[in-house]
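Appendix B. Raw example, untouched.
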Amino acid sequence: MNLPNYITLSRILAVPLLIWILSSSRFAAGVHGERELLASAVFIAASITDGLDGWLARKRGQITTLGMLLDPLADKLLIAASFVTLVQFNPHIVPAWMAVVIIGREFLVSGLRSIAASEGFTIEASDWGKSKMVVQIVSVVAAILNHRWLEWTIGSFVFPVDLIARMAVWFMVLISLAGAVDYFVAFWGKIERRVVRSQRRAFVLSRRRKRDVAPT
């Protein structure tokens, strides 16, 4: 275990902590939004580690097999736990079907990456995937805060928490669908090219065999 792996592990450990904060009756009595603020802080801190562990691993030359296994697992656990819990915690912002779409995208991408790895090629992260983390942070945090506040008034500025939460979650659904389609198109293109090359290779080999066995 090295420092990047410990940071990744901390993201995994943040998952049950986040679920406990949002689900436990211990925080339900807070009248000043203590539960929502604490859960938002835990989620933001866990999300920041997503980029930090990879950056440290590359900078320190500590990219390991364990880290390559834990990093995507931690990402999937964090996003799945967040949206599943939000279905119960704030269902009018995150209905069940939205959680299914968002989490289903994660399973699809993981499946395509596994198949690609078994076939000997990789699928590069798309621009949709790179921007997903920012949208994810905004949507989850806004949905958590919306459980307590419809809007924040800071001086003369009114911060529309409810509107931001609704827009961010819908955008999260759209970007998940677009990212899934983008990954599938990239995967299918590489599989198709590989099949064409295999067919050409088989055709050439069959022609050579025919020439070799042809009577002289």
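End of appendix B.
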